[in-house]
Amino acid sequence: MNYYFLGIGGIGMSALARFFHQRGDTVSGYDLTESPLTRQLESEGIKVQYTDDPSLLPDNIDLVVYTPAVPQQTALFQHLQQSGVAMRKRSQVLGELTRGKRCLAVAGTHGKTSTSSMVAHILHHTDKGAAAFLGGIAKNFNSNVVIDNNSEYVVVEADEYDRSFLQLHPYCSVITATDADHLDIYGTHECLLEAFEQFASQTDSEGFLIVKQGLPLFDDDDHDHHESEEQHHHQNKTNPSGAKMITYTAQGIEADYYPWNVRHYNGNIYFDLRTPKGVIYDLELPNSSLYNVENAVAAAAMVMSLGVDEHQLRYGLKTYEGVRRRFDYRIKTHDLVMIDDYAHHPQEIAACLESVRYLYPGKRVVGIFQPHLYTRTRDFADQFAEVLSTLDELIMLPIYPAREKPILGVTSSMVLRKIDSLSKYLCTPDQVLELVPALCPDVVVTMGAGDIDRLVPRLEQVLKEQ
Asked: What separation in angstroms does the CA of 98 have from each of 133, 210, 310?
């Protein structure tokens, strides 16, 4: 087969491209700008074009895979559509690849990349194994795709954007969060919740639905718990799909799975895990964040439901190296820490900064944030201002537009004006490189989902040279 990807530099698209390429198919594609990821694809033998020019298209394309992030007005899209070649959305192709397998899908407005990569890593080191399509570069695999032709399981990050996750019919599902997001697609939070409920209802009736306790998805009235072990088991609760429903939480003691005695030492986090079958003591998450404890609990609930034992879980978590751009340590010395994070929603930023304050109390924290999308900045301007105001020094970059056109009056300055502090700056990337060292930080945190990742290695180098 000859596949052509429109938007091949996207994290989900590149995973599919790598899968087909490694399978032996011919793969090429287009992206608007060159990036570390597209350069990596090219080094693996995948041809990428950066010009919106149909004359550069390869001959005999069998299937075009596209993403909504590429505007349909592009010359390439228009040409391919008019040529009559078969075209499928990325989500449709992913859904087809999971059929015939036991799909393990992790959904949620945040937490899904870390949770799904944990699940894939843990299963990879058991006799169960797993293929995986991830929404980030898992450090353990140095990739966003894992190929395992001998396993019946495939781990998938289930993306709610554009209702993509409704193409999946999982054997086991996790829902980590349902905060308002992608309102440019859904319109209202209620419509987003309806989509998550539909996703949950598509879980196999013979499988498991694992939900963070307290999410506004199902009636939770029957979740009263008591201290006895026998009464604590309530995996028989069902959702509309008929799947067994399991709850987890990082806050409280009333779910099937929850952490206890969380502590940290030298950047590593340790905790005990309460499960329906008892307590697992002294689990370790190396070089991790406080919010990853919650993700680890969700991952544990999924893999233990599939039969993974305590020793396999312990080894999997202890050897889990994380995901690039997910609380990603770039510098970790006695005098300076630099952490890079994909956080682009107010809740994600809050979780990231909570972990920083937990691990480095009393330290001077400088944050660099690049807003992602005009609509998200407009919809959550007050929330962004509130959470970013907790930084000792805030540096903001201009909004990264991605697929959107500017909205009058919606700028990074709009958010900055809502913050009652003098320790705030609006900078270009080059200005950041000069300003950050002058602020004498103890901890530097870079946050955002746009092209701030291109600034990160440059800033890392500057700080290391100080």
From this structure: 10, 19, 28
Nearest to 129 by CA among 11, 318, 277, 306: 306
**Cβ neighbours, 10 Å, residue 261:** 11
Helices and strands counted in the chain (H then E): 16, 21
Helix (H, G, I), strand (E, B) or coil at 437: helix
Give CA–CA dist 34/385, Å, rounded.
Answer: 32
* 205: nearest Cα among 233, 172, 177: 172
How much is the pLDDT for 227? 37
Q: Hey, what domains does the chain have and what are their CATH numbers? A: 2-89 (3.40.50.720), 99-318 (3.40.1190.10), 328-464 (3.90.190.20)
CB atoms within 10 A of CB 121: 26
Residue 273 CA to residue 172 CA, distance in Å, equals 21
Residues 183/109, Cβ–Cβ less than 8 Å: no
Alpha-carbon gap, residue 62 to 48, rounded angstroms: 17
Q: What is the mean pLDDT of each run of 10 residues along the chain (466 residues)?
A: 96 97 97 92 97 96 93 95 96 96 96 96 98 96 96 96 93 94 87 94 97 82 38 50 93 95 90 97 93 96 98 98 94 96 95 95 97 96 97 98 92 97 95 97 97 96 94
Cβ burial of 409 (10 Å; 0-12, 13-18, 19+) is exposed
Q: Which run of H or of E encompasses 402? A: none
The arrangement of strands across the sheet holding 172-175 comes to 143-146, 131-138, 153-158, 102-107, 172-175, 208-212, 244-248
**Residues in contact with 177: Cβ distance below 8 Å, sequence separation at least 6, in sequence order:** 108, 109, 110, 111, 212, 215, 347
Report the largest interatomic distance among the alpha carbons of the chain, rounded to a whole angstrom: 70
Residue 92, token pair as written in the block:
């449709």
Long-range contacts of 83-89 (CB under 8 A, 24+ apart): 85/61, 86/62, 87/63, 88/63, 88/64, 89/65, 89/162, 89/164
3-state secondary structure of 65: strand
H-type helices in 101-143, by residue range?
Answer: 112-124
